[in-house]
Amino acid sequence: MPFVTSKELLLKADREGYAVGAFNVENMEMVMAVIKACEELHAPAILQTTPSTVKYAGLHMYHANVAAAAKRASVPIALHLDHGDSFDLAMQALRVGYTSIMIDGSKLDFEENIALSKRVVDACKPSDIPVEAELGKVGGKEDDLSCDDPGYTDPDDAVRFTKETGISSLAVAIGTAHGIYKGEPKLDMDRLSDIRKVVDIPLVLHGASGVPDAAVQECIRRGISKVNFATELRIAFSDGIKEYLKGDPDAFDPKKYCKVGMAHVTELVKKKILVCGSDGKA
Ligand code: 13P
Question: Considering the chain, what is the average pLDDT of its residues?
Answer without folding.
Answer: 96
